[in-house]
Amino acid sequence: xYAIIATGGKQYKVSEGDVIKVEKIDAEAGATVxxxxxxxxxxxxxxxxxxxxxxxxxxxxxxxxxxxKVIVYKYxxxxxxxxxxxHRQAYTQVxxxxxxx
Length: 101
Prior knowledge:
The chain contains no helices and ten strands. By secondary structure, the protein is mainly β. It is elongated, with a radius of gyration of 19 Å. The protein starts with a strand and ends with a strand.
């Protein structure tokens, strides 16, 4: 059984026991979060739309973290302009416990 959930502007295909990294959620490690934006659920058949109106996915927060550094380098030729900047995206690692369909 799997479900497709939406969180942080992205969609994820999850099954029970999966560990995924999603956009930052304000929750402490060990807390339980519920994803209620379920797009589709598949057990024997695929259910979408009104069939999954009350479906939820329960998950446990494992850790908060930041991804690898991405270097942003801006440069304009012949003018002496260059700017170096770095960015680390925050994420939340969650473990999918239960798909309630």
